[in-house]
Amino acid sequence: MKIRAVIVEDSRLARNELKELVKKYDDIELVGEAENVDMGFELIQEQRPDLLFLDINMPEKDGFQLLEMLDEVPITVFTTAFDEYAIKSFEYNALDYLLKPVSEKRFGMAFEKVKAILDARAKEEKSTVKKLSESSQIFIKDGEACWLIKIGDISHFEIVGNYTRVFFDEKRPLLYKSLNQIEEKLPGQVFFRANRQQIVNTNFIENVVPWFNGKIKLQMKNGDEVEVSRRQSYIFKDRMSL
Fold first, then answer.
1. CA–CA separation, 49 vs 153, rounded Å?
2. Is-above-0.70 flag for pTM?
3. Does residue 132 belong to any structural domain of this protein?
4. What Cα–Cα distance (Å) separates residue 200 from each residue in 68, 146, 215?
5. Which intervals hold domain HTH LytTR-type (predicted)?
């Protein structure tokens, strides 16, 4: 994907110089430019760019004020003719600070920093497990039987050796996945880890019964009973109380 960039700079000459530098990189897409802070604010709100080339010294409002106006700040590279702002720019978490006129070599160094950050973000997003919602559907195959079932219709999960048994309606198929793998994807506001062997859907709990040593037992709507470990019993009580 291309890196979407905007330029906020009051000097037309400086904007044109930056645009010429941007053109040398196929993976940057310039999606807009603005000549003052207010126009820049509107542009950023509309385009949601990945990268902002921002002049510091502009009339009426400066580049620092623009950053203070934003709720979500793009990766920012300051561009200015005055090196006196360098320290302050890093107080605003700027990625880099380019002195005008910006050389092609110095621009390239800044862009390498931008790519490194965006690449790291992309890897982090890929490694993050995507959570399912109650309305999400999963496909289950057990032997010759197949089901397409909503997550919210599953009452609970239970470890059976190297498999996990899935409980819904009157069905009890087995999935060749660990309970930990399944738990990572389940909506945490609905499903609760009762013990090392079982996860329950709290919407399917019929009754909660006090048990031994501070533990509780959950009576499910399908008639099954799930004993909650002592540690998880305390967590369940805290979670389900007002």
1. 40
2. no
3. no
4. 45, 22, 16
5. 138-242
